[in-house]
């Protein structure tokens, strides 16, 4: 062992492809499961959330307009880079979640594989969810799934990496952009993941990550008029009804959370992909 | 303008009865609510007295639906459910003329629309969904998707029978039971549908129909025994419902308002476009959530198009809904007429140029002459708010990008129209428009196989097609 002092990382927010500190200048202490100091994380504010929504909206046109093949490649690239930093994520997840290295390994592996799974979905969703509509008349009619828009994601509180990936990947796979509020007490893997996103061809603004107090930030996200949908995965149980109510002001689509945090190691189905798409039906007359 | 001899449909065909009762647990029974009088909006005469539900009736209906779900409908093989639903489809077709006349009497819509659109599409909706009942495992939602339970459904007055069909058919096909509240001003055809459901021998409680006003709807959607809420109506009420159900765990679908852009490019076939524009905004007196109420015309053809439009709209015949020659019928209620009048006044006071069809109007009843505003800017209320009447706002644009930006500049997103001869432009615009239904070189087409529903504040969930089944399954 050398006596060298390691260089500690400053954990910041990830908004519009950049890594700003919270505009509020606040930070909070992140501890491991035994109460030891891990780092100071930025304590995001209402204004940070709003900046993140602006960035997500700005990125929406380009990302939703990208070809599905391109989005698939970008998501796959995330898996590639995550694989390359596997050891770092294992250490960070183990520290964050207080789990043994072996469990952290399987968790990180599952997170990498989840990116691959969703990468493969990008150019199949329209085939599976779309339709040619055999209408009773001389019209050609088809329906295609399109992204809902800007999705506010409250990331799972316990599963800091696999849970996070499991909710963010399906949102962006279909062409949405995301504003993510991380696990409050376990935010570090999310910020490290944002470093992966920043270097893996995911355009800036497609995923925006805000750390801080969930109870403080979530209502701003839920009531923001330029957010189209809300994933309540990591919403505190006591706040879920309030957040769902706030979402009604602009008729947001709300994906509710189960009573207890699900087992994120289970193989997902299409439900998270279906949650944040809109079906568009197009008609045109047929004739000579 | 050509003269037409009157060609009235015979109102006796409606089999109008002096009173109608609600349908609960397989029986027609008196409700404990204050009875309502439903009015013919074309004459302001009372058509019939209709019993309404009170809180206790809603509770009884939900419990009846629950019993029917637990004991019969929820566990019935899909193939058997299908046959009941097919029966309903057939019986609607058998009584099509009666239903069409009754619909035009109660709603005020022209008989040619109730006859050619509302009633046949309602029958088609049951026929289409009947076939799904034993094929749900093929819908891509898992091998054996399960129903939700009791569906509480609230529908509007603009397509009374058709909206009942859109709601009831998929619910039943997926194995749910139903408590449906028709609109206060148009309860009659839903209660004839109840007769059909009784004659089709559906088990008691599978479908319950409770007339009443908004308070009955609020009672229904908030009832703890309701697992699924489906609402079609205004965005304001939709938001109230979504908010009131927050944290309750019920599955909700909302089909709300719209302010559709109908975009005419300079290469559009203008005569054909004029027909589509007229259909888009004057169909059903403009009482259509997906009405093409904002016309966006490319500047270079705007004058020519508006002139053609005025000429065409001048030929529309407004009057007796039962006359087979009538193009535009009666506004559904005095309340709606007041709302339309108020918004039209705002258009004038905000500086838009108003043109009104010179057609004569009947001297009684609720009628509003087709109105076209030009010189409309995006900030005006008539460009932003849903008027739900025969009022068109015309805006112009110069470039395709500007057209899309203006079209999408709305919190709604239910429908949109595109008029151009250029195929690549159609597909480009269809892709860019943020709306659930896009009609290109046509407008206001509906089919049970084609999903319908909105983006943004026009609601969520779809009706029709494979996608529509999701709303009634536990997936």
From TrEMBL, chain A:
Top-rank lineage group of the source organism: Bacteria
The family database entries (InterPro entries) matched by this protein are listed as: Ald_DH/histidinol_DH, Ald_DH_N, Aldehyde_DH_dom
Domain Aldehyde dehydrogenase positions? 25-254
List the residue ranges forming a coiled coil, or say none: none
* Gene Ontology molecular function: any one: oxidoreductase activity
The record's listing under SUPFAM superfamilies reads: ALDH-like
Q: Which UniProt keywords apply?
A: Oxidoreductase
Protein name in UniProt: Acyl-CoA reductase-like NAD-dependent aldehyde dehydrogenase
From which source organism is this entry?
Actinophytocola algeriensis
UniProtKB/TrEMBL annotation, chain B:
Q: Name the EC number(s).
A: 1.2.1.3
The record's listing under PROSITE patterns reads: ALDEHYDE_DEHYDR_GLU
Protein keywords: Oxidoreductase
Q: Name one GO molecular function term.
A: aldehyde dehydrogenase (NAD+) activity
InterPro entries registered for this protein in UniProt = Ald_DH/histidinol_DH, Ald_DH_C, Ald_DH_CS_GLU, Ald_DH_N, Aldehyde_DH_dom
Instruction: Mention any Pfam family matching this sequence.
Output: Aldedh
The family line of this record is:
Belongs to the aldehyde dehydrogenase family.
Q: What is this protein called?
A: Aldehyde dehydrogenase (NAD+)
State the organism's lineage: Bacteria, Bacillati, Actinomycetota, Actinomycetes, Pseudonocardiales
